[in-house]
Amino acid sequence: MLSEILTSEGFWFWTLAIVQSGLIIWFVETANPVSAAVTMVTLIVGLAFFPTQWEYVGLADLHEMPLPAWLSHNAWPLLAGIGCYLFVGIAWATFRWWLLVREMRETYERHKAEWLAPGNLRSTAALLQSCAERCTETALREQYQRWSKICRMAASEGGNRLTQELKPVWKDFVTNGSRL
Amino acid sequence: MVPGYDSRQARIKFNGLTKPDPQDHSMQLLAWAICWPWNLVWTVCVYNPFRYIGAFFLREIQSALFEISNGQFSAIERDLDLDPPPPPFQVQSKPASRPSEPTIAAAVVSTVTADSEQLGAVHAAAQSATATSPVSSSIVVGDSAFLSQSSVVAPTAGEANPPSGVEVESRAEAPQGVSMPTDDDIAEGKSSESHTWIPPEPTAYFPMSDRPLRALKYDQRTPPPGAIAPLSKSADSAADPWFQKQVPGR
């Protein structure tokens, strides 16, 4: 049973297709279009080694005529197919870009909501107060104290709202998180 | 985790948040476009964009249902609302301020399009208009000349006529609901006070509230706010035929 599976052409064809698909996904996720394209071409060329599987991918005519004749016979459908493929690819890339930016925004909103929670604002106020006590620079110490007071007031008012006074603290937290 | 987001450099999870630039992600976009079938499968399996689409339609449906509830229950809420209606809005006449400042009733902008040989005549007309009125200005740019003149000073009939072969397009900018005087109307009124008429200010409204907005017109017996001193002399303004013609109810 196992030997039959291992010696069957279909098994190796689909194994190759799955492995190469995984490679393509990996290359796409790591923003490597050249490697992804090369892998895709090798996947297509690799079909030549599995003639029994051609009919499953719509290439049954290759059994009856050589590749150049098949290419010349199906030139326009091939070109149209490539054009449609690229067009859909551009549309998909646009949608995928929207998805990426949306994901970034959601991440930002999630972290903002976490930061604006009253408990987190209180702990931020305590952290800022301790920073102010340790700080030797007068201007920075006053700024920390002022921010600590703002965070305490925001927490006492219920939090969950980015007020105009909280914005400098939030911006500092986003850009220089380690200082907080 | 957001693709392209380098967590190794982040001290806080989303440190260094910057607006994504497509040029910086060109390789990523190219990979998405070339290998879109694989990326589609991966995206659907991992990122599940259907949650956004589903959430969008859910919000839209909820909003529509809420609007239906509001529409059907607005009358019931009005019946059960025990709060008194807001007091009528008191229109306070503004003090007669800035009497010395010139008041521009409306601006008349004329755009003159001329051929290159006609530009000289157009420019001369513009300069004469500027010399006549201190609040007039003219600009000649390329093949076009722009005349800007306020209606405080009435142009004479000769100045209003453009040179022959010159297409003049006049446009008057005025508050809605106020009919602007034509050149002939201005020329009819010999009194200089007819040119100092100020159109009434837009109708006052109640401040924003959950109640429907209601308009409140001015008391016709009092002069409109912002009127300058000569206009407040009712005897003179009542004798002005143009003033009576332009303000209904006077």
How would you explain this protein's 3D organization?
Helices cover 74% and strands 0% of the residues of chain A. Chain A is built from 8 helices and no strands. Chain A is elongated, with a radius of gyration of 30 Å. The termini of chain A are far apart. Chain B is of the alpha+beta class. Helices cover 36% and strands 12% of the residues of chain B. Chain B has helices spanning 26-34, 36-46, 50-80, 119-132, 157-160, 183-188, 229-232, 234-239, 241-246; strands spanning 107-113, 137-141, 144-150, 167-173, 204-205, 215-216. In chain B, strands 2-3-1-4 form a 4-stranded antiparallel sheet, covered by helices on one side. In chain B, strands 5-6 form a two-stranded antiparallel sheet. The longest helix of chain B has 31 residues, at 50-80. Mean pLDDT of chain B is 60; it is low at 1-13, 100-114, 133-175, 212-219 and 231-235. The A-B interface holds A 21, 24-25, 27-29, 31-33, 36-37, 40, 85-86, 88-90, 92-93, 95-97, 99-104, 107-108, 111, 173-175, 177-178 and B 2-5, 10-17, 20, 22, 25, 27-36, 38-43, 47, 49, 52.
Count of helical stretches of chain A = 8
| Most extensive protein-chain contact, per-chain counts | A-B, 36 and 34 residues
Indicate the structural class of chain A.
mainly alpha
Record field, number of beta strands of chain B: 6
Find the count of extended strands of chain A (DSSP E, 2+ residues): 0
Q: What about the largest sheet of chain A? A: none
The coarse silhouette of chain A is elongated
Beta-strand proportion of chain B = 5-15%
Assembly state:
heterodimer
Looking across the biggest beta sheet of chain B, what order are the strands in?
Answer: 2-3-1-4
Strand percentage of chain A lies at under 5%
- Residue runs with pLDDT of under 50 for 5 or more positions of chain B: 1-13, 100-114, 133-175, 212-219, 231-235
Number of helices of chain B: 9
- Tell me the distance between the termini of chain A: 64 Å
* Integer tally of domains of chain B: 3
Element pattern of chain A in H and E = HHHHHHHH
Q: Tell me the count of domains of chain A.
A: 3
Q: Give a quick account of the main beta sheet of chain B: strands, pairing sense, barrel closure.
A: 4 strands, antiparallel
The helix fraction of chain A, in percent, is over 70%
Question: End-to-end distance of chain B, in Å?
Answer: 72 Å
